[in-house]
């Protein structure tokens, strides 16, 4: 624990661990309510696996590009940082767009949040993850603006690293959503 | 081994992490799509094992957990969080399953016996 930056990094990690527990409660709720479809659509009926696979790969690639941005920051290569961060943002927006389209389609078919306990827990779990992605994208935009105007100073580099960890964490949560909600649900 | 798993993260280590993650993702997808309804329990086991594998891959290659020098605070906090998660998830499933079992109506009980004895053609019956 040498510097203030190290302490901040650990503190942020501890926050992420509480976020992990939050997602665990939403997963537990979803698992308990998976069969409570109230004569409405069940998991198989609302899931399109190819669509979800595309979303998953997009988010995975964005996690890689976020990592590449952090690597570029470590060697103080501002242009490369901006490039990879920009790609991360575009991929993140694509993911969010696909997810919102999926939700709107489901709602249009009557498979909305209020339809059944299963759907309530589905939208809460997946929606909370989507909300984290959205907030992350706002953070990313502000990082891009700060990097554009002030360059790779100490503060921006540290913030960028925190963003990278946050973004990796969101991809990790998505792995479990992909596996437990979508793959198992489609069986 | 130290060439593949470097001390400092590099483009190569991120690409390895990405590649392994992609393989486990596609693997889980293909196992599901090709084996749905053939043996669901085996598929679920495979999906979960692949998910946990990808978790470890990403924790190491993307988040560098386990490669920290000095006191492993991050690993420790992660371990504690996972214990809490395990209690929450396993505990909820156990309790709610038990609750649902004990609160069956006679009609629910008929349905349960039919499924449990395999009278509906499912794989349960003896």
Count of helix runs of chain A: 6
Helix and strand succession of chain A?
Answer: HHHHHH
Helix content of chain A: over 70%
Which structural class matches the secondary elements of chain A? mainly alpha
Number of strands of chain B: 0
Average pLDDT, all residues of chain B: 87
Biggest interface, chains and residues, is:
A-B, 40 and 45 residues
Count up the helices of chain B: 4
Low-confidence region ranges of chain B: 1-6
Strand-residue fraction of chain B? under 5%
Per DSSP, what share of the residues of chain A sits in E-state strands of 2 or more residues?
A: under 5%
The biggest beta sheet of chain B is recorded as:
none
Helix content of chain B: over 70%
First-last Cα distance of chain B: 51 Å
Shape of chain A: elongated
State the assembly state of the protein chains: heterodimer
Low-confidence stretches of chain A: none
Mean pLDDT of chain A, rounded to whole units? 95
Distance linking N and C termini of chain A: 47 Å
The radius of gyration of chain B is 21 Å
SSE blueprint and pairings:
The complex is a heterodimer of chains A (187) and B (126).
Chain A: H1 4-32, H2 43-46, H3 49-74, H4 78-108, H5 117-150, H6 154-183
Helix pairs in contact in A: 1-5, 1-6, 3-4, 3-6, 4-5, 5-6
Chain B: H1 11-35, H2 40-61, H3 73-102, H4 106-117
Entry keywords:
heterodimer, A: 187 residues, mainly alpha, 6 helices, B: 126 residues, 71% helix, flat
């Amino acid at each position: 624990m040498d510097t203030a930056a190290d302490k901040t990094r650990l503190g942020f990690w501890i926050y992420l661990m509480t976020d992990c527990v939050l997602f665990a409660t939403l997963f537990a709720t979803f698992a308990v309510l998976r069969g409570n479809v109230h004569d409405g659509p069940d998991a198989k009926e609302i899931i399109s696996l190819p669509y979800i696979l595309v979303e998953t790969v997009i988010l995975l690639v964005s996690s890689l590009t976020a990592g590449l941005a952090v690597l570029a920051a470590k060697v103080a290569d501002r242009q490369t940082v901006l490039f990879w961060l920009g790609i991360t943002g575009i991929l993140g927006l694509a993911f969010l767009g696909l997810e919102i389209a999926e939700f709107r389609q489901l709602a249009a078919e009557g498979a909305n949040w209020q339809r059944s306990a299963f759907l309530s827990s589905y939208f809460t779990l997946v929606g909370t993850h989507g909300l984290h992605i959205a907030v992350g994208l706002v953070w990313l935009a502000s990082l891009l603006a700060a990097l554009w105007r002030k360059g790779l100073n100490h503060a921006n580099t540290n913030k960028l690293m925190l963003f990278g960890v946050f973004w990796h964490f969101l991809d990790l949560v998505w792995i479990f959503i992909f596996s437990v909600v979508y793959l198992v649900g489609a069986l | 081994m130290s060439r593949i798993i470097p001390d400092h993260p590099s483009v190569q280590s991120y690409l390895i992490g990405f590649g392994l993650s992609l393989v486990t993702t596609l693997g889980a997808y293909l196992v599901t799509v090709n084996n749905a309804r053939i043996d669901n329990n085996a598929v679920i086991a495979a999906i979960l094992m692949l998910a946990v594998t990808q978790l470890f891959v990403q924790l190491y290659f993307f988040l560098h957990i386990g490669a920290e020098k000095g006191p492993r605070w991050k690993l420790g906090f992660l371990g504690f969080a996972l214990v809490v998660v395990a209690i929450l998830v396993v505990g909820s499933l156990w309790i709610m399953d038990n609750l649902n079992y004990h609160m069956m109506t006679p009609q629910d009980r008929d349905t349960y016996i039919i499924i449990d004895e395999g009278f509906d053609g499912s794989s349960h019956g003896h």
